[in-house]
Every structure is written in structure tokens, then in C-alpha cells.
Amino acid sequence: MARKKTPAIAWPGTPLPRVFFDRPSITVAPLLLNKVLAAADGRAGRIVEVEAYAGAIDPAAHTYRGKTARNATMFGPPGHLYVYFTYGMHWCCNCVCGPEGTGVAVLIRALEPVHGLALMRAARPRTAIDRDLCRGPARLTQAMGIDGAQDGIDLVAAAEGFTVLDDGVAPPEGLVGSPRIGISVAKDLPWRWSVPGNRYVSGPAAPRSPPLRERRG
Q: Residue 6 pLDDT more than 70?
């Protein structure tokens, strides 16, 4: 059955083009910081924390052992949303990256809410403070209204209710990747990035590289 089309995204900005996602996940991940995940109903959050997962070379990736019904979207075209269920209770969302068939993606770990907070609060009524609405991959899917129905939607087309926008805020410069969190294998790979000093990040802030004059010493 074809998905029902939804109204155009109202949050100002330009949807990221397919070519943005058609690169390795470890390239795309830090560039997604400060972009905006937006919904047609007005909910929007600035991406402040991400993790890259790299398919067949990454034991922590869902696609490490090949294609299954659960991870099929991650093997699909870049620029689509891969949504999966975990721990029997939570949804998490990822931006599919790289050429079709490679099985790589970027997990969105945290958002800074920027619009539609009333809808987010209604979706997470037990959340005591706004800081916790989207601070973590399961919280943000609840707050944004993302679940299994969104698995496979095209973020680039922005016609199925969700997209990722560039509204002119550049990603932080000089970031250094840090170890991913919440996984049991390949924990030391430095494929997690976050906006330094942002209070909505779900784990320890990712470091910046030292200034060039310090590195020369």
C-alpha cells in the first residue's frame, strides 16, 4: 500500500540533497551536526549528536552480517530513514548513507528542540524538563512521532512527513570523533560526534582537535 502523502515541511531551510548522503557514514555523520530534523506537523529539532555505522567493516552495525528483513532499508538508496525497534520498547532512527547496497547509516542520537515543543511534550508526557525531550535516540523518536511506519521514507523528497534541512547553521569545526556509546562491540571506534557544550547531548561531549600551534609542539 502506498504511503499517504503529507503536507510540505514548514520549518525554513533546504532539504539535504541525495548527494549529501551518498558518501561514507563516517563522512556524513559530523556534517549532520546542526542540521534540522523536521516534521510536517511543525516539530523540529537541531541534530546535536550522531554516530556512524559502517556496514560490513563494523561489527556494531546491523548490516555487518548481511541483509535481513529488519535491516533492508539500510541497504537501500541513500537519503532514506532507517527506523528499527530495540530492547522490545524503543524506536531509533538513522539516515541511510553511501551507495545502495553498502548498508551504512548515521544514528541520530540527540536533538535540540527548536519548534513544536507542545507536540513533543504531549508525545512524552512524563518528561519533567524540556532538556530531556530529545536527549537520546529513543526519546527523540517519541518526541518527533517516529516509529516503524517511517522506516524507509525518503528524507530527500520531503513528501512523507519528515526531512533533514540545512537552515544555514554550519556544523562545528575541529571536531574529533569519540567512542560510540550503548553498544557491546567495536566500542573503541571513534565514530561518535556531538556539538561541543550543547546541553541536549545524551553522553559525554565529543572533543575538539587542539589548535594547530599546540599540535605542532
A: no
**pLDDT for 174-184, tens place per residue?**
999 999 999 99
Per-residue cell: 45: 529539532
CA angle 11, 48, 90 (to 5 degrees): 90
Q: Can you tell me the distance from the alpha carbon of 31 to that of 65, in angstroms, rounded to the nearest whole number?
A: 27
Average pLDDT over residues 10-21: 93
For 1-160, CATH number out of 3.10.300.10, 3.40.50.720, 3.30.2320.30, 1.10.10.10 equals 3.10.300.10
d(C-alpha 57, C-alpha 104), whole Å: 10
213 pLDDT exceeds 60? Answer: no
What is residue 204's predicted lDDT score, i.e. its pLDDT?
Answer: 76
Give dist(CA 131, CA 211) in Å, integer.
Answer: 31
C-alpha separations of 97 from 103, 166, 199 in Å: 8, 17, 27
Per-domain residue ranges for the chain?
Answer: 1-160
**CB atoms closer than 10 angstroms to residue 45:** 26
What is the average pLDDT score of the chain? 92
Distances (CA, A) of 44 to 32, 61, 75, 210: 14, 27, 27, 32
Please answer whether residues 50 and 193 qualify as being in contact, where contact means their C-beta atoms are separated by less than 8 angstroms.
yes
Residues 6+ apart with CB under 8 A from 173: 208
DSSP 206: P
